[in-house]
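Now for a concrete sample entry.
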Amino acid sequence: MAVVDTLEGSGRVSLVPDVLLYEMSFRSLQDFVEKSLDMYRSELSLILYPTFVYMYLDMIKLGETQAAAVFFQKHQHSFDSYHDEDIRHLSSLKERSQLASHELATALRSEKFVIAMARDSFQCLVRHLQESQSRLVLNLINQFFCMDLNDDLPRDSQKIATTAGSQLGEAPSSANSAPVFYGMPKDAEFIAALNEADDDDVVGEDGKPKKKKKKESAFSNAKKGKMTANPHAPPPSRVPLPVLKERELEKKRAAARELVRAVPLDSKRLPSICFFTLMNTQQALTSVSLSDDSGLLATGMADSTIRLLSLGHHKMQTMKMPDDLASLDCQEVGVLDQILDEQSGTDSRLLLGHSGPVYATSFDPFNSMLLSASQDGTVRLWDLNTYTTAVCFKGHVLPVWDVDFCPSGYYFVSASQDRTARLWATDQPLPLRIFAEHVSDVSCARFHPNSNYVATGSYDRSIRLWDIATGSCVRLLTGHHGAIMSLAFSPDGRFLASGAADGSLRLWDISNGSIVCALTGHTESVFSLAFSHDSGVLASGSLDCSIRLWDSRSLLDDAKEPDFSFYSSAGGGGAGLVQRQLACFATKSTPVLNVHFTYRNLLLATGPYLPQ
């Protein structure tokens, strides 16, 4: 319901109101909220912060800078702590001429600030504004607010804290109504590889097949064709994907053979952890990523270089010289292995090309290409056969913070300070999609496991899920009180984990856009998240020099119950607030920049040693 409809005929404020009216109106609104009934107070208090902000911006626009400064100084400490950063940004706004170039002010004045409120609370607010003739506040609400009304009981502060926090308020109820194909399609190649691995004969010392013991596997349901078609999976032709080459299919089969041997994880069986500490980085390490098969590690550096490291026995070889390649028979079986020079094998490679710090890297699923994102505003695609730049993608106008390859290859997504995320294809120089609804830097981006969606996190403290087939935003998730720094999808595609700069984690059910759980424990930014391949454990790495393991198995099982609610009672506190931490592992002086599960559910973690 629009406020203008409810208050029709209530009058309009003059074009240039007395600046004292701003202070009087805001003080009256504060007194009303403080004296309101307990059941309404928490929801009514949501009106105070945006009213303060829009009053301040109005005074700046009118040229009343001195009165605006006094008003700002008097009330800036009256709000929840998660608004502190936004208030600090607004404090730099001193003159009317700065309004057009101020990023946050422009976003606030061009978008509606969303407040979800029970209809009873809203009527209480309207009654007060009519009786007190607060026309200034009424006009601000009509012009800049979106009141998302519902017929539920008014929420308490605990419930509000789970959805409030974004720079533009809460997600409106209509934002999460679109259907989402979150399921994983049936993969015949994957199932065949699982069965092949399960049927391998084990040969004994006498040369005869040895009877295998029946062993539990994280993917036992997928064997022998037990995996049924998922009704929530997208149609196979919804997003066009390239046909895999034989070499790529073999890598996929090899991955499946490893996955079938994965040890299922839960609260009683925690993963082993292998930590790679990078020494002598002189605080120049900006990013770390590992390949899907855990064989390669890429580090992005502040000096614009990328260092590739081999974590196994495999040496990184370059191609032979052109004269040697000319003598090879291209039709011969195994020619792709013959083009590599065995004498050139080494454990590390240095990639040069960017002109600014490298903030993110991402391997393709087949270890043939590497993406890198840099402060220079470009994304580079590296050929891991020649270790040179294959393509330099230009489109972003500001630094690129993150990049992620599609699980099927070919597509990738980039996230930038220019407040956009962009979808690319490796054989197209221009972006296929531009996702542009965030109002601040897009800090991280991740592909959905079924390759149909992209999730983005932003400094505006919101998460969006984008449909790459249509380019539309199908989910808007709010509730974090810090910038979103990391994202990870569960292997089944239904759940999304997010980590923020304030150290908090949240689990979301993207089937309906609801929150599953809020997890606390870290004291610094959560820089990396990873689900085990059976969804039994969620690992988080943070700048507080710790790795924490969370019981995602029980959380996700609970969330799949038809009557599940984040606010349902559990020990008197709400199911979402029950602590589910399984373990915490601290390093001495190494912030954790990356956590990664191998195919067999061994947890790998990486970070730079920073001497005290």
Notes: The chain has a mean pLDDT of 87. Residues 49 and 118 are 18 Å apart (CA to CA). The radius of gyration is 27 Å. The longest strand covers residues 388-394.
